[in-house]
Design a protein that fits this description.
This protein has 2 helices and no strands. It has 73 residues and is mainly alpha-helical. The protein has one domain. Helix 1 runs parallel beside helix 2. The chain is elongated and about 50 Å long.
């Protein structure tokens, strides 16, 4: 994953927000989608997703990162 920028949401550059979303959400969704056929083949595989404590315990200044990790959780 990617931590992104730290700070008040309105002060974070939009391109940095998009990069954090691309790495922490889009890559997760795309990879999972691509692996679906493999997951259905015997022996059945599993995907283990590791998120962050920030997904459940918000931290000031890390709104975007926390939201993307909550998505994974």
């Amino acid at each position: 994953g990617m931590g992104g920028q730290f700070g008040r949401f309105e002060h974070i550059n939009l391109s940095d927000i998009e990069k954090t979303i691309d790495v922490n959400i889009s890559a997760f969704v795309n990879l999972t989608h691509e692996l679906i056929p493999v997951l259905h083949q015997p022996p059945h595989a599993k995907i283990v997703n590791i998120s962050s404590g920030i997904a459940r315990l918000p931290y000031p200044g890390l709104a975007v990162y926390g939201a993307t990790k909550a998505f994974v959780s």
